Amino acid sequence: MADSKVKQELLDATTTSLKSNCSEISTLIRQALEAKKFAYCPYSKFRVGAALLTHDGTVFTGEKLYTLALRESNLILP
């Protein structure tokens, strides 16, 4: 019973935070979509972009890059 109460409180806090930060979320989505344009994925053709907002307001963006030597994708954050 206590677990469900904690989960509900967390969900309520998250929902409230998301509603109050809607413009920040929209900005992060736009930045991730912009980063996605720079993804290099010649094999899968599946572009990925990411934007991370830190506690101090700094935003880091990155995109999916393939390396030929490893044949894996890496998320590169500047």
TrEMBL record:
GO terms for biological process: nucleobase-containing small molecule metabolic process; pyrimidine-containing compound metabolic process. InterPro entries: CMP_dCMP_dom, Cyd/dCyd_deaminase_Zn-bd, Cyt/Deoxycyt_deaminase, Cytidine_deaminase-like. It comes from Electrophorus electricus. One of its GO terms (cellular component) is cytosol. PANTHER family: CYTIDINE DEAMINASE (PTHR11644). CDD domains: cytidine_deaminase. This is CMP/dCMP-type deaminase domain-containing protein. Gene3D superfamilies: Cytidine Deaminase, domain 2. Its cofactor is Zn(2+). Residues 23-78 form the CMP/dCMP-type deaminase domain. Belongs to the cytidine and deoxycytidylate deaminase family. Homodimer.
